[in-house]
Amino acid sequence: LLMLDEPSLGIMPIYVNKILKIVKKLRDEEAMSILIVEQEIKKALKIADRAYVIQNGHIILEGKGEELLNSSLIKESYLGI
What does the UniProt keyword field contain (predicted)? Predict the structure, then answer.
């Protein structure tokens, strides 16, 4: 189990993408379980098999990363779309 707390915090975007690429590779090639706490929700959901959105200490959404990325609540609340 690899646990990452805000891996993008304070890091240049180009390096964040490299980090997430490595995380995805570990997940896919090494069958590693990975827990990521991340405020950059769009980036996190793109690589997540399963995701939970927590607000005020409560799970408000859960599902597959791609499904949540397309959720109207996520688009309105977190992505400003």
Answer: Amino-acid transport, Transport
Q: How far is CA 73 from CA 12, 28, 42, in A?
A: 28, 28, 13
Domain count, the chain: 1
Note the pLDDT tens digit of each residue in 48-78. Answer: 999 998 889 999 889 999 999 888 888 887 7
| Sign, CA torsion 49/20/2/42 | negative
Domain extent, residue 60, equals 2-77
